[in-house]
Design brief:
The chain has two helices and two strands; from the N terminus they run E-E-H-H. By secondary structure, the chain is of the alpha+beta class. A two-stranded antiparallel ribbon has the order 1-2. It has helices spanning 28-36, 52-57, and strands spanning 11-14, 19-22. The model has no long low-confidence stretch (mean pLDDT 83).
């Protein structure tokens, strides 16, 4: 499982905050694991495949 936030469908740019954010609300334990482990596998990771819908239409 990947953990690269920049390729995740839950990662978005918040114009009001002027920064990128994760759309998932982690609980306290998940946040600690995510921040303390460089190889943490996010259970909410979904590949942001914007062409996936187009492939299904063919």
């Amino acid at each position: 499982m990947a953990t690269d936030c920049e390729t995740c469908a839950n990662y978005y740019y918040d114009e009001e905050a002027d920064e990128y954010c994760c759309d998932v609300s982690f609980d306290e334990d998940e946040t600690v694991r995510f921040l303390s482990s460089p190889d943490y596998n996010c259970p909410y990771y979904r590949l942001d495949d914007e062409y996936g819908v187009v492939r299904k239409q063919n």
